[in-house]
Amino acid sequence: MLNLVLFGPPGAGKGTQSQKLIEKHGLIHLSTGDLLRGEISQGTALGLEAKKLMDEGKLVPDEVVIGMISHKLDANKDAKGFIFDGFPRTVAQAEALDRLLETKNAPILGMVALEVTDDELEQRLLLRGKDSGRPDDANPEVIRKRIKEYNDKTAPVAGFYKNQHKFKSINGIGSIHEIFDAINHVVSNY
After folding, report:
1. What's the farthest any 2 CA atoms get from each other in the chain?
2. Which of the following is catalytic: 51, 72, 124, 128?
3. Is 128 a catalytic residue?
4. 32: closest CA among 2, 62, 56, 3?
5. 148 an active-site residue?
6. 162-173 confidence digits (pLDDT tens)
7. Quick check: is 124 catalytic?
8. Comparing C-alpha atoms, which of 118, 146, 31 is closest to residue 83?
9. pTM for the whole structure
10. In angstroms, what CA-CA distances link 9 with 13, 105, 111, 169, 172?
11. Distance from CA of residue 64 to its chain's centroid?
12. How far apart are CA 137 and CA 110, in angstroms?
């Protein structure tokens, strides 16, 4: 099973590149952001709490996210693999994900990290906010808080996968096609 973590800060292009990988390799996109937004759009209690936290630029509790991921994996047992987009965000989540995937005999094969400067991220997110209507992408203060949260809490996850010799870094600035070619070169080695 081809299980990949597509890694990078908000606005790095993970969603765009995930879609291209899904089309090429027949993988299932597992975006915790999409899972959470689904809960929000359904107006569930979890969705309302998640919305409040996301609007403040904060993270949703690990046990909630791991439970949603487990359910998604179980619902797609015949999948060729999964692309984890936006998760894990902390070393504790990476450890929990490894434990979950171990029970399903489907480990992460690699992490591909999209590297993008903070200034570029802020500009991309503001543009996305104008198009998407997402409040967390429209407010420069919230965007800076999200980027800082990523740099402080999420970036260390790369070290977790480096220690497992599963980490590859890709320049996330360039054309969508150029970035995809670089990612696909890494993925083809799995």
Report:
1. 42
2. 128
3. yes
4. 62
5. no
6. 999 999 999 999
7. no
8. 31
9. 0.82
10. 9, 28, 14, 13, 10
11. 16
12. 28
Distance, CA of 17 to CA of 4 (rounded, Å): 12
Q: Dump pLDDT digits (tens) for 34-68.
A: 888 877 888 877 778 888 887 887 777 887 788 77
Q: Is 145 exposed, middle or buried (0-12, 13-18, 19+ CB in 10 A)?
A: middle
**Which residues fall within 8 angstroms of residue 84, CB to CB, at 6 or more apart?**
3, 4, 5, 6, 30, 69, 97, 108
Catalytic pick among 20, 134, 144, 162: 134
Helix (H) or strand (E) holding 6: strand 4-7
From the number of C-beta atoms within 10 Å of its C-beta (0-12, 13-18, 19+), residue 141 rates as exposed
99 is an active site residue = no
Q: Which residue matches tokens 């994996």?
A: 73
